[in-house]
Amino acid sequence: MSSEKQLVTVRVARQIEAQIIKGRLESEGIPVLLSYESAGLVYGLMVDGIGEVRIMVPECLAEQAKEILEIGNESGNADEE
User: Fold this and answer.
1) Which pTM value belongs to this model?
2) Which of 6, 24, 48, 73 is in Cβ range 3.0-4.6 Å of 59 for a Cys bridge?
3) What proportions of the chain, in percent to the nearest 5, are helix, strand and coil?
4) In whole angstroms, what is the distance from residue 21 CA to residue 14 CA?
């Protein structure tokens, strides 16, 4: 991913969820960068932002990425009905 493209955060998640989301978006042709503190990964912490993973995509693809993630959430909520 070129550093010239402005990146925006489309979601914040835990490490495992972030990896799944990254794979989903990349399968749709959207490049993804995960941004996180290494301490959260090493120690498994989720406190005050440590352990959170920001899922970032190019600004021009942010709306498309959000739509893909919303569709995934809707189809994943079958247990709640």
Assistant:
1) 0.74
2) 6
3) 50, 25, 30
4) 10
Task: Indicate the class that CATH gives domain 7-68.
Answer: alpha beta
Q: Half-sphere exposure (CA, 13 Å, Cβ side) for 58?
A: 11
Chain centroid to Cα 38, Å, comes to 16
- pLDDT for the residue numbered 80: 41
Any residues with CB less than 8 A from the CB of 81 and at least 6 apart, and which? none
> What is the three-class DSSP state of 53?
strand
pLDDT digits (tens, 9 = 90+) for 2-26: 555 699 999 888 888 999 999 999 9
